[in-house]
Amino acid sequence: MNNWVHTALIAAVVVVVVVRRLRGEPLNARDLLAPPVVLTGLGLWALSQHHGLGVGDYIWVGAGAVLGVAFGALRGATIRVYERDGMLWQRYTGRTFLVAGLSLAAMAGFAALAARNGLAADARPVQLSIGVGFLGEALVVGCRALASGVPFAPERRPFER
Q1: What is the SS3 assignment for 100?
Q2: Among the four residues 3, 28, 52, 138, which has the most C-beta atoms within 10 Å?
Q3: Quick one: pLDDT band at residue 122, thresholds 50, 70, 90?
Q4: pLDDT digits over 75-117, tens only?
């Protein structure tokens, strides 16, 4: 698939997720887990297409993934999880965007450092970075949701608002 198409699809997924969570949305398990799983899977697939990576390259990729999960978890701690209509809802806050900005800057610095040390650009798939960040967020939000004792929102049918 063309790089522009990949980029457009990733951007669309991220924009939809962020806009919905900024307005506040019912918190259901599928919507919490599907975006990070899909993006991480796409990133791992893109990484598998790059041949000739050495042990050092995989260490850089692994360190970047750990950093992404950590910043995602920090972002997840800033998300407001609350009860509404007898079910869980979530909403991004100003602190969520502050942490997102800091994590973007840190990840850009890490990517520059990786490139300076010889890691090929296609061994650092953007969808993997975004996916593991959303995964860290989902883990924290999911744990907070489970600890609340309030039920998750039921799954919506496709195209239902």
Answers
A1: helix
A2: 138
A3: low
A4: 999 999 999 999 999 999 999 999 999 999 998 899 888 888 8
**100 phi and psi angles, rounded to 5 deg:** -60, -40
List of residues 6+ apart from 107 with CB closer than 8 A: 64, 67, 68, 71, 129, 133
Retrieve residue 143's tokens.
């744990």
23-56 burial string, b = 16+ CB within 10 Å, else e?
Answer: eebbbbeebbeebbebbbebbbebbeeeeebeee
Output the pLDDT for position 51: 82
What is the token pair recorded at 124?
Answer: 């650092």
What is the phi-psi region of residue 159: left when phi exceeds 0, alpha when psi lies from -120 to 50, beta otherwise? left
